[in-house]
TrEMBL record:
Membrane-spanning ranges: none
Organism, as annotated: Thalassobacillus devorans
Coiled-coil annotated residue ranges, if any: none
Classification via InterPro entries: Cytidylate_Kinase-2, P-loop_NTPase
Protein name: Topology modulation protein
PANTHER family the record matches: MODULATES DNA TOPOLOGY, YALI0E33011P
Superkingdom to which the source organism belongs: Bacteria
Length: 181
């Protein structure tokens, strides 16, 4: 596990938090796609620049790239050895998106582009609710392709599964570190 894509069914699934914790455990740099995509004041980066930034990261020996942006999966997936997919229930994703907005009002989160203060739009909430099932269905089709190409696909469907996965990985890393010292 050296080049990891962290993706999720929706905004609010916990991708950024999970990727940050995973990076700390594995001691691998984490790259947030929102930080690459959004310029100050919510200006979108040109697609070619966004794609090229991902390509440069993907060429590195180790990385965790967090975020969906499915139109650029191809830039990352060819080098990824592990894909971790977070699929929390739709109501949890909506709740977390709203909570994140309230908790970060007037601030720019560390996983966002500089100068992109937290905001909430009805269109965004509607997107989470109305596209959830279709995005989940499409993702499972991708899993078959990724598995067939030798990539490890890990699906975590609850807070408990996520917590357990990270705790187990941390214990394994600690044991490995003890063996190496």
């Amino acid at each position: 596990m050296k080049r990891i894509m962290v993706i999720g069914v929706s905004a609010g699934a916990g991708k950024s938090t999970f990727a940050t914790e995973l990076g700390e455990i594995l001691r691998i740099d984490v790259y947030h796609l929102d930080a690459l995509y959004w310029r100050p004041h919510w200006i979108e980066a040109p697609f070619e620049e966004f794609e090229e930034a991902q390509r440069e990261i993907a060429e590195r020996q180790t990385w965790i790239i967090e975020g969906n942006y499915s139109k650029t999966f191809g830039v990352r997936e060819y080098r990824a050895d592990t894909i971790i997919y977070l699929e929390l229930p739709r109501y949890v994703c909506v709740y977390r998106a709203l909570k994140r907005w309230v908790m970060n009002l007037g601030k720019t989160r560390p996983d966002m582009g500089a100068g992109c203060k937290e905001k909430m739009e009805w269109k965004f909430l509607k997107y989470i609710v109305t596209t959830y099932k279709d995005r989940r269905r499409k993702m499972y089709k991708r899993f078959k392709l990724w598995n067939a190409s030798g990539k490890e696909v890990i699906v975590l469907k609850s807070k408990q599964e996520i917590r357990s996965y990270l705790q187990d990985l941390k214990a394994k890393q600690n044991q490995l570190n003890k063996q190496l010292s």
